[in-house]
Amino acid sequence: MTVHPAGSSDIIVGIDPDRDWHLALSWAADEAQRRRLPLRLVLAVPPQHDTHHVDGTPGRTALSQAGSVRLEQACSWVRGRHPEVAVTGDLLGGFPAPVLGGVAREARMIVLGSRHLSRTAEVFSAGSLVVPVTAQARCPVVVVGDAEHISRQPPYVVAGIDGSASAAAALAFAFDEADLRGTALRVACVWQRPLIMLDDEATARRAQRTVLSEATAGLSDKYPDVHVAHEVLTGHPVEELAQAAEHALSVVVGRRGRGGYTGMRIGSVVHGLLHRAHCPVITVPTD
After folding, report:
1. Whose C-alpha in 55, 59, 67, 123 is 20 to 30 A from the C-alpha of 82?
2. Phi, psi of 125 (to 5 degrees)
3. pLDDT digits over 143-200, tens only?
4. Quick one: 255 exposed, middle or buried, by C-beta within 10 A (0-12, 13-18, 19+)?
5. Cα distance between residue 120 and residue 110, in whole Å
6. Residue 57 has pLDDT above 70, yes or no
7. How far apart are CA 161 and CA 29, in angstroms?
């Protein structure tokens, strides 16, 4: 097993020793190939419940050995899929969420699988990774709960924006992703009808279209080959964005920066999409 120190150019994948890792790893390996970046697989071995034991106990050794085998299987699988991708694996001690949150601080991107837990289970489950790692990471986090929908032609990526700084970062990432893949980009904002309308609906929707046009203007010049469609959706942001991305390769949204372990600062829309969307969800931090 090759030990590869974390670096800002790595795409990192969290490997779950107890569950199938092929879906998330295939997404990450393809992305590493597209971006010509090294791929680092990380598997965390938690401490034993008996705190009087040290790392060299038989239980710990068995877990480490099983983890090493799992990592080598995953690395071999990547080499077979993309021989040109530099792939390494690290077996690290500690609970998975803090371990992956730590290595994600220096990564280009981190990719996780998802079990589509309920929001409560995701926050309080001992094995939960998605919310805490997404909240802590300083890089884009990709949560792969379902396969990419490649049957819809032409293929497209969805970006959800709301005029915020985090949405601007997400939009820039979405343009880059669409350009790398040679796909279209659907940029959507969601208008929620207020209880008291200060303007008529047509005026409000025109204002939203102005937000879309201004947000994409410079990026469209930078990525002239990306076909961009603007969409103003009406309803709840989570439901509308999830529906817009029903047949997308991925949906890209911003998040508000690094929060605490429970991830309450990632935002309700991000939190909702992580559980509702049926395509890979990419969240991009502001900083």
Report:
1. 67
2. -65, 135
3. 998 877 766 678 999 999 988 888 999 999 999 999 999 999 999 999 877 666 666 7
4. buried
5. 23
6. no
7. 27
Is 129 exposed, middle or buried (CB count within 10 Å of its CB: 0-12, 13-18, 19+)?
Answer: buried
Amino acid 203 reads T
CA distance 37 to 91: 20
Per-residue confidence at 265, pLDDT binned at 50, 70, 90? low
According to DSSP, the β-strands at 281-285 and 141-144 are antiparallel
Tokens of 271: 């939190």
Q: Go through the chain and tell me how many residues it has.
A: 287
pLDDT band at 263, cuts 50/70/90?
A: very low
List, as one string, the DSSP characters of 32-74: HHHHT--EEEEEEEPPPS-TTS-TTSHHHHHHHHHHHHHHHHH
